Amino acid sequence: MTDRPGPEVPQPELLPGMVRATVKEAQAKARATRARNAAEAAVAEVGPVARVLVDVPLAHLDRTFDYAVPATMAEAAVPGVRVKVRFAGQDVDGYLVERAEETDHTGRLTPLRRVVSPEPVLSPQVAALTADVAERYAGVRSDVLRLAVPPRHATTEKQPSPAAPAAHGAGTGAGADTGAAAGWAGYDHGPAFLSHLADGGSPRAVWTVAPGDDWPTLVAGAAAATVRSGRGVLVCVPDGKDVARVDAALAAALGPDRHVTLTADSGPARRYRDFLAVSRGARRVVVGTRAAAFAPVADLGLVVVWDDGDDLHAEPRAPYPHTREVLLLRAEREGVAALVGGFSRSVEAAYLTPGGWAHELVAPRERLRSAVTVAIAGATDFDLERDPHGAGARVPRQVHDLVRSALTSGPVLVQTPRAGYALALACERCRTPARCATCAGPLALTSPTTPPACRWCATPAVGWACRECGAHGLRAPVLGDARTGEELGRAFPSTLVRTSSGDHVLAEVPDTPSIVVATPGAEPVAAGGYAAVVLLDTWLLLGRDDLRAAEEALRRWSNAVGLVRPGGRAMAVGDPAHPALQALVRWDHAGFARREAHDRHEARLPPTTRLATVTGEPGAVDDALTLLAPPPHVEVLGPVPAGPDEERLVLRTPRAHGADLSRALGDLQRIRSARKLDAVRVRVDPQQL
Description:
This protein is α/β, with parallel strands linked by helices.
């Protein structure tokens, strides 16, 4: 049997009609492609060059790149918009920062891929500020832009912003504005400061607030004076609790719907909506946390930073900028007024006044004496004679007497440095720290009904015995707010005791007799001010292994004492001879900051010097030390161990040459990035050493 070829069946694609249709379709696609390519190749007649800052976190690529602006994108591609460009073989995001007529590039420019959104989100002022911040902190500009511009929310972007309020006038809050003016009258040169703002001037001041003053109202008064001159205001505070207070004060001083709040807790939609209201010019008064320092406020006239010593103002992400420094750079670049305020005064803020860059705003000594009376338990021979055992007591008799008398007129605030119940335990007989038998971790008590347990592995320490003396008794040398509240509740059984710390932070308490136990930073605001404030365990804050221990302790104590009502009393339990406690008693924060600055100048420490650290694996730090080309005035210290498998290099130079050190570190980062060496962390003026 043989195979015979069957009749040939014509293939569908070879039929004449289908061939002609396929050819026509291909020709039409080719014509469309040529037309599209021609349209893309046609470059805009005006401003054909787009200078784009690509979102690439590589230091050696931290500059603008030139691209061609297609004619089809000529209207949408305006400075400040988000764009997509072809870079290193892939599509990347970027910001169009400038349109130009010419380019230094000798070849053919690659066209923009597309304009992501026609919404300008990067103003020229903020673009220049991000460059200054990146250079100041030896960082990459793309990292700063992530802090300055929030992520895009397309749905929100399509919605219109609210109508802009009247260009002049302080709104409807005339009563609040009058109260703020009266409050500023209590400070030397305070009325002149407000008058200068209202006249369109740019005064710069370091402001130490008197105890009992409603500082949000005073800040709102300064904002209202600036608004009357037709300019915008930017206020940065440490946390959301302070944002809420300033928000309410601005609403009272300016009227409703005349300002916005910018915080990370707002959520992506609301945060982007408020950001667009600012960038579109609908709102020109902004209050927020550290990211708000880059808000694109139109016609900016005043920048305010409150409590600049708070570590929440220090950005934990690279390049680690500080809110105070960002606002001062902005004030210098844009020529606007600046106000650095707080109940205490940081050494960096005090350093602004001797050279005349800023002036002091302080209350007269007579007013400070009448505002609050601060005492230290056991500071006099009479106190020791009356209470011989008070020097060794955690809560001396004087504190009990103060709390008892103050409860007759209002609430009492008790500040304790530690949260929890009993976070450290020791042998009752020999005072040896109690350790876990399993992992040698510290033992702690979480409540009065639970047995001691390890803070590391959570193993209960049932039947614990001291390894040194064999005793079974335990004592708590350090008590938290929960245990403190429990003891005060026993001492004052008919009084309501509240605690505020950790995840349970109270914003306000009523003006009724009660005891409020709070950790630093979690103190709620009393409606009429506290009748008395008590500071316990002051040695804990002073005993920290930190360059800023005394400065930080005074700041936290001052913030608590600042919540007292006018004429109230405060008492601290600690060493009466310590300079920080003496400064608190005299309310002499300026003098304390000057002495700290003098001591740091002799020790060649910030802020009189510019200091930077380079941290990483030992090999990476050695490479950095080899490649670094520091100016002659830079002193190189180290490297020294900085943790498991890490070393740290410390660089310092006189403050006048600080910019040279930052530039040298920036060059180092670019060389390391181009050679793809192991990464190191560069921090300029770190908060902690």
